[in-house]
């Protein structure tokens, strides 16, 4: 008998769902965290990265030897760099230069070409440059902000996993919003199973900078975003998100990024308002790609 071993691509998804312990306090609610940092390239973005490339191949939009282009704040870029390495494509990634050193290093480790724009240009500038490079014939842009294959990945995998792992008992779903692919795909699936499930999105408070999530200007709002799929939007301060991120590591042994800390902070707020609820929050990535930012320093 020939054994069939998995490839690295087969290891994307099926991440653990774990219970928050000390930080949950004395509550009738069950607080659960979906550990997306357990994906091979370390974040929830492994799912849409593989989905966007694979589905484009099936449609004949990507040919062998193609060069792919994407604007990213970090996690999608790392995931796409991994997926491109798996499948043998060249990858050009464009990101703001204030992204963490670990994110930049991870992308180039997978063989991607990295182009930086200024902090002032931000993700909007990165997206504009990606479109210009595609227009110049440098490669094929995947466009995570407007590509339906992004939320479809979460409709096909993340949402069903959460439903199965909670045995259909989930009452609230909390997710940070960047491209909005995670919250769009999960909302669609979970609402189909039970329309009463409440979908809570997280965005930075005005003036706060939380890596990976944005408070988008109207003209740059992701095309995949449908406001009707989100029941409530929480504005989160950078200070609260960072403090919760540190607490997760020190009190729960969960080492994650700041957008995940923000999602848990929103979960804890929500838990004070409801009873006998089953609340699930997405832990987008791992904390090791933020060490150089200093947020885990003892004197922070």
Describe the protein's architecture and organization.
The chain has helices at residues 46-58, 75-87, 101-109, 122-135, 149-165, 181-193, 238-252, 258-271, and strands at 17-19, 30-35, 67-71, 90-96, 113-117, 140-141, 172-176, 198-204, 232-236, 278-283. It contains 8 helices and 10 strands. Helices cover 36% and strands 17% of the residues. It is an alpha/beta fold. α1 crosses α5, α2 runs parallel beside α3 (101-109) and α5 (149-165) crosses α6 (181-193). It is globular, with a radius of gyration of 18 Å. α6 links the parallel β7 and β8 (198-204). It holds the Pfam family PALP.
Structural features:
4-stranded parallel β-sheet; 6-stranded mixed β-sheet; globular; 300 residues; alpha/beta; 8 helices
